[in-house]
Amino acid sequence: MGRLTLSHLTFTGTNVEPASVDFSPHVTVIHGPSDTGKSFIVDAIDFVLGAKELKEIPEREGYSRILLGFELATGERVTLARSVDGGSISLYRADVRVEPSTPPDETLAAKHSAASTKNVSRFLLNEVGLDEKQVRKNARNETHMLSFRDLTRLCLVGETEMQAEEAPGLSGNPVNKTKEVSVLKLLLSGEDDSALTAVPSAQDQKRLRGARQEVVERMLSQLESQLQDVAEPAELKTQLGKLNHTIDQHSAMIGSLTEQRGQLLRQHNELQSADSTQRSEYSDAAALRQRFTLLQKQYESDLARLEMIAEAGSLLGYFRSGTCVFCGAEPANQHLNLDCEGDTTSFGVSVESETQKTQGLLDDLLVTIESLDARAEVLRASIRTTRRDVVAAQKSIGKLEAKMNPEKGNLRELLAKRSEIEKNLGLYEQVKTFEDMIRRIADETEAEVATAVAGLSLTAVREFSAEISKRLEKWDYPSATSVRYDRNELDIIAGDQRRSAHGKGVRAVLHAAFTLALAQYCFDRDLPHPGFVVLDSPLVTYRPPDQSAEAGDEPPEGVVRAFYRDIQDSFDGQVIVMENTDPLDPLGHDALDIRFTKRVDVGRYGFMPALLEDRPADGLAIEA
């Protein structure tokens, strides 16, 4: 497989001397104090390889172009040139170290394009045998053409990334995690994902997830604004408990009063019902008494008429024996009353009989009237008593209601307060629900990552882990044999902890081991790899567990010596190291040791020449 070798980095401009640094094809160590341009070299290399912007530093003023020299696998030397302001990249089929005076052989776009080969990404990928490779980007087996930018995080590691908690090879962006795992799989196996068949989808699930998450986050933001001045859930629950206790007390009191009122209302209703019944009975008795009075008068009138008839008959002789005064019948032909004494007529008997009958009826009626009058009097007394009881019951009910109304008002206020607290607790529950929804959406992304992880060969991961462990062991890293790369965690596990759980010094050393081990793994198996590794500050912050704070900030000598010895003896590609500390032993004949001093009077000041204000006055410079 083809490899790329960096030969030099040069800045050119008008009226400024070129700033250039050469790189050994094997090991280059650039060391010296901070702010001498070491990290800027890493940034400039990344910029020429397609990064969006270049770091701004004062020493850069006056320089307009960056030249990055390469040696290709064929032995051909080329130079990539790019303006410090960005834009396209010029390709020169020669080793150019001064401001170019001729047009470039080709002009390449800085951004990768699957539709065109005229970009720096496709040019470099073609040189290392990875052009047109496809990597999975989601769980539906949709693929994305590999870009050289996908490889740079695996071979060019800045100081920030070296010490970051994010796992080596991952950017920390969940959207790109599936693709980044697939890129690692490509390097470990040499096989891309072009054979995958995309699962048909009615719409872009990735965009849908993003839209769903955006909607949920907007709703969550609205809820959080409503809860801005609201107490925390724990405090609200405490308030709710106290309110419920107070409400129970008020409810019990109101319940007792309500029960008393209910009893009084039942008594009141019973009294009103009795009063109504009594009044109805009294009304009926009064009407009956009136009818009886009329009947009494009728009986008395009938008796008066009968008495008048009897008197008139006596006077007219209607009651004596002889010829009938009515029909003229002789006594022999008259039907006389057998019970009479023979001195009266049957007419007289009839009058007497009718009088007795009517008198009997009148006597019975008078007894009934007397009984009815007695009952009416009882009813009148009972009605008066019942009415007094009704009025007393109404007064008692009024007093209870007057006592209940303030309690009801307090209870309404307590219930309203409880309702508000329950509403706010409900809003907190909604917040929790929305946060769970966001986590579930994120879990869908994790499911995509899990699909990509399943493609990592266990054998490849085991051999890669062994390569990391072997390299750390050569560096005298504690318990190096137990260090491994975990396929599920996608991170290095050291001391039974993920790399992210360690301090930045350990994270930097483990990241350097990951990057170098990955490159050597590819070299040993003739798998595609860019061929070079650039590491910024892999050792400066590392301190082993047995080194006390009094030992100072310098990394341990044993680790420093072992690290530089290992990259010279056991690494087959090109490695460029930026460090603040100096190598303790001279480097080998095929290594390049570049020291920046940050002093204009001793050695090389830095990558860029010193600014005029940093230079001593003429005649005061001290010979190196």
List the helices and strands and how they pair.
Layout (H helix, E strand, L loop, with lengths): L4 E8 L6 E4 L4 E5 L6 H11 L16 E7 L5 E7 L5 E4 L13 E3 L11 H9 L5 E3 L6 E3 L2 H8 E2 L1 H5 L13 H13 L15 H22 L6 H84 L29 H109 L3 H17 L9 E3 L4 E4 L2 E2 L5 H21 L7 E5 L20 H13 L4 E6 L11 E5 L29
Parallel strand pairs: 3-15, 3-16, 10-14, 14-15
Antiparallel strand pairs: 1-2, 1-4, 4-5, 5-6, 6-7, 8-9, 11-12, 12-13
Helix pairs in contact: 5-8, 6-8, 7-8, 9-10
Describe this entry's structure for a reader.
The chain has helices spanning 38-48, 120-128, 148-155, 159-163, 177-189, 205-226, 233-316, 346-454, 458-474, 504-524, 557-569; strands at 5-12, 19-22, 27-31, 65-71, 77-83, 89-92, 106-108, 134-136, 143-145, 156-157, 484-486, 491-494, 497-498, 532-536, 574-579, 591-595. The protein has 624 residues and is of the alpha/beta class. The strands form 4 sheets. Strands 2-1-4-5-6-7 form a 6-stranded antiparallel β-sheet, covered by helices on one side. Helix 11 links the parallel strand 14 (532-536) and strand 15. Helix 6 (205-226) crosses helix 8 (346-454) and helix 9 packs across helix 10 (504-524). It is rod-shaped, with a radius of gyration of 58 Å. The model is unreliable at 336-343 and 619-624 (pLDDT under 50).
Characteristic key phrases:
single chain, about 625 residues, alpha/beta, about 10% strand, disordered C terminus
